[in-house]
Design goal:
By secondary structure, the chain is mainly alpha-helical. The chain has one domain: Hypothetical protein af1432, CATH 1.10.3210. It has ten helices and no strands. The longest helix has 19 residues.
Length: 202
């Protein structure tokens, strides 16, 4: 999938290209152009399955959600701020605010049950967890690349905490389709990776 085919603002190709260039930065590991394409593809999959969300702000939030990614804690906030600045005049103020809200939501992946837009974006962003084993292994390796500045012990401990927090969630996915199709394989992948990490930690 070419992400450009899913850009909802035909009058703003320069913004599309700037965002795509950010994801294509060779210094990125997992949060790259492939990740953007996968999130967009999962959003399309949810729509085809009948889950209703507002496509323009949700798709734009997908484009912006990792537009800034450098391993710092406020990356989502800076991505949201970019959206708030760049989308002025292209969307209504209400739509701009919704895009920014959705981008910020990807920090926690904890949308309210009645937040259809948030549930769609959160599920699409987390869908990588339900990937076939080979893709999941590539994802996990790419995450390690993004934390290459950390020694193994520090990374393993931190990654284990992330996985433990994910597996402790009552449910990873919020839309009916994702809960039915992605929840079980995602949990299997997480548990397999976590077991491997804990074995290495000792």
């Amino acid at each position: 999938m070419d992400p450009a085919d899913h850009w909802p603002l035909p009058d703003a190709p320069e913004l599309r290209d700037a965002l795509h260039a950010a994801y294509a930065d060779p210094s990125r590991g997992y949060h790259d152009a492939q990740h953007l394409a996968e999130v967009l593809r999962r959003l399309s999959e949810l729509a085809r399955a009948g889950f209703v969300y507002d496509p323009v702000p949700v798709v734009l939030a997908a484009w912006f959600h990792d537009a800034v990614y450098d391993g710092e804690r406020d990356a989502e906030e800076r991505s949201a701020a970019w959206a708030e600045h760049a989308l002025v005049g292209l969307l209504s103020d209400v739509e701009v605010a919704e895009v920014a809200r959705l981008v910020r939501l990807t920090e926690t992946h904890d949308p309210a049950p009645d937040d259809a837009n948030g549930c769609a974006l959160s599920d699409a962003d987390l869908a990588i967890l339900a990937s076939p084993a080979e893709r999941y292994a590539a994802y996990a390796a790419a995450v390690r690349v993004e934390y290459a500045h950390l020694d193994d012990a520090t990374f393993l401990a931190g990654r284990a905490r992330v996985l433990q927090n994910l597996t402790a969630k009552e449910r990873l996915f919020r839309t009916p389709y994702a809960l039915e199709r992605w929840e079980a394989p995602a949990r299997a992948n997480l548990e397999h990776e976590l077991a491997g990490l804990l074995a290495r930690i000792g």
